[in-house]
Amino acid sequence: MESSYNVLEAKNAKEALEILNNENVDLAILDINLGENEQNGITLGQQIKDKYAIPFIYLTAFENAEIISQAISTAPYSYLTKPPKKSDLIASIEIAIRHSGKLETPKILVKDGTYNISLSVEDINYIESDGNYLLYHTDEKIYKTRSTIKKVAEELGENGFVQIHRAYIVNKNKIDKFSNKSVIIRNITIPVSYNYSENIYTNAIS
To answer: Distance between CA atoms of 135 and 188, rounded to whole angstroms?
Structure first.
């Protein structure tokens, strides 16, 4: 089970924040002591809770009641002391990820300016082909990534999307109204082509 984990290591809080800003992270394991003159793991845990909303676990040598109380106030998913039993660590990781819902929401890699981000598919209203690029329309903004409709359709699989045009894939859960000629999402009218008109009736209400 543990062999499926992709582990990214950070030497200090600065490196940890760089990873969080640039990678898709499902869980963080934090030491409380990050070295002299370094931000400690508890304040880093609070930042992760407030800004990144991912589960985190403390793995530390500290057993002091005051330190433990401070750590618990940041709402970690577990607090383990070194050296942990391998089975305890794996169990804590699995529980944290599953209870946080990170395994339940599929994500897709898109561009946000010069950065890559992992976008939850449930946030996508529809996807539009634009030459060699795809435009991912969400309530907040539009993300642009080099790809094709065919490729993204394969990536999305059965995650609640339906192709209605050679240039459009829509999120079934975001459809407000539809006919055999168009779909309306967030007051945006999206064309339905003849070749895909059957898709809208067989898939949009399923």
So the answer is: 14
